[in-house]
């Protein structure tokens, strides 16, 4: 019996890879060119609202599970800025925020599901 090679599937098992990433701090936007040639521009404030780290997830869940309860926002989201970014291996990007938060790791597959803004 010879081992069956994994069938190439264009679906979910294919890695989502960007061919080019540009973080524009002045615009607070992330420009991504995906390997398939499509381009996306992400508002960094939107990415922060979707931050996948445990702290932010719990914060969001608590907010949505208990309407009418007291919510203390640690930072004014309007003044919150991305101050830096770095790649995590070849699968994710990690941002640093002006409030010191830097534990959110955005898997590229996850990033691609987030709402992007129309490119200018
Ligand atoms: Zn977070």
Q: What key phrases describe this protein's structure?
A:
single chain, binds zinc ion, alpha+beta, three-stranded antiparallel beta sheet, 120 residues, 3 helices, globular, NE0471 N-terminal domain-like, 28% strand, 20% helix
Brief synopsis:
This protein is of the alpha+beta class.
Number of domains: 1
Topology, number of strands: 6
| Low-pLDDT ranges | none
Q: Within the largest sheet, what's the order of strands?
A: 1-2-3
Largest sheet: 3 strands, antiparallel
- The N- and C-terminal alpha carbons lie at a distance of 55 Å
Class computed from helices, strands and strand pairing:
alpha+beta
- Which of globular, elongated, flat, extended, rod-shaped describes the shape? globular
Annotated CATH architecture: 2-Layer Sandwich
Query: Helical content, roughly?
Result: 10-25%
CA gyration radius, whole angstroms: 17 Å
Beta-strand share of residues: 25-35%
Mean pLDDT: 84
- List the ligand species: zinc ion
Enumerate how many helices there are, as a single number: 3
SSE layout and pairings?
Elements: E1 18-24, E2 29-34, E3 39-43, H1 44-49, H2 54-65, E4 82-88, E5 92-97, E6 105-107, H3 108-113
Antiparallel strand pairs: 1-2, 2-3, 4-5, 5-6
This protein binds zinc ion.
How would you characterize the overall build of this protein?
By secondary structure, the chain is α+β, with helices and mostly antiparallel strands. The protein has one domain (18-66, 76-113): NE0471 N-terminal domain-like (2-Layer Sandwich). It contains 3 helices and 6 strands. It has helices spanning 44-49, 54-65, 108-113, and strands at residues 18-24, 29-34, 39-43, 82-88, 92-97, 105-107. The strands form 2 sheets. A 3-stranded antiparallel sheet has the order 1-2-3. β5 (92-97) and β6 (105-107) form a beta hairpin. The longest helix is centred in the middle third of the chain and has 12 residues, at 54-65. The protein is globular. The termini are far apart. It binds zinc ion (ZN).
């Amino acid at each position: 019996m010879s081992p069956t090679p994994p069938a190439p599937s264009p679906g979910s098992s294919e890695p989502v890879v960007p061919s080019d990433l540009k973080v524009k701090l002045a615009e607070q936007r992330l420009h991504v060119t995906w390997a398939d040639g499509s381009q996306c521009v992400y508002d960094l404030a939107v990415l922060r609202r979707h931050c996948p780290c445990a702290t932010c997830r719990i914060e969001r869940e608590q907010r949505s599970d208990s309407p009418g309860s007291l919510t203390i926002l640690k930072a004014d989201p309007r003044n919150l800025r991305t101050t830096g970014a770095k790649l995590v291996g070849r699968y994710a990007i990690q941002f640093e925020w002006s409030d010191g938060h830097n534990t959110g790791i955005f898997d590229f597959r996850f990033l691609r599901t987030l709402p992007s803004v129309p490119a200018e």
